[in-house]
Amino acid sequence: LGNLDMLPLEIINEIISSLSISSLDQLKATNRRAFEVVNAHPQFKTINRQAHDVLRGLRAIKTADRITLQALFNKLCASVCYECGDFRGYMYLVTFKRLCCRCIRDKDRRLFDKHKYVPLREFDAVMEYGLTLEVLDTLPRFLGYPGYYGRPGGPPKDYVSLVDRDSARNAGITLHSSIQAIQDYTANADPAVLKLYKKEIKQSEKEAQAERAKCACRKKSKEITYIKKRNSYKRVVIRRRTEHAKRLGLSENEFNIIGRNINLEFLIKDTNNESISTYAFTSQESTPATNIGNKGNTKGNSDNSEYFSH
């Protein structure tokens, strides 16, 4: 942890509690020590064990940077539904509200409040609640998880930016002062302005998609580089094994048998004069290496050291 290691563990835990979930993921990727400290944090350990699906959901829809570990822990410890005060069994990951099943299903709700917890696309929020692009940028949003939606056999959907419907409604009321004013504004909206808004929203979505594609290419490039380095290392190991086998006077099959049954570090320690260290077998050992070393002589093991040396 660098200079943070000088701090007591209690202060480090306080710092971790104030970090967002995405910041914790980045901290865990720093080194093994940071990984162990974060995983040993009491709150993170409890959430990871009892509500791991919440962490997976936050990472999947890209909202992990909007809530700290302490705030998430407090939300998960809530005992009542945000809407009705009944038992809560779910969490709305856009605004981090604890809800019950009935409230999520929009039961017993007024017409204008229907689908309160059903997100909508950015342009739909502009059309439905008369928002401007400046107000739209301030709303809680997330990225819809890519997959196959709509009619069967359709093309796969990429990440789509969605906004919270209830926040969009409240922003519209704040902007236009009443629900009736929102309805009047949307009914008489200028088509040219809406067309301009739609064009800008689509342009921002294309830019975000291009940025995600660049990140995916960089990630793929790193994976390819890692695979090439790993394969290169394997080729070096195979070449060294072959050279050692030749110096030992063994065939490839014999060398593989020895490598599976005894520790190769006793066989292939090179010195400055490129000699091979010996491995002293006992007469009680019944490994294939012993049989090869004896070359049919099972009375003693005096010839074994000669077999494993030049």
TrEMBL record:
Q: Which domain of life is it from?
A: Eukaryota
The record places domain F-box at 1-47
Q: Which InterPro entries match?
A: F-box_dom
Question: Composition bias, kind Low complexity: at what positions?
Answer: 290-301
Q: Where is this region: Disordered?
A: 283-310
Kindly provide the name given to this protein in its UniProt entry: F-box domain-containing protein
Query: From which source organism is this entry?
Result: Zopfia rhizophila CBS 207.26
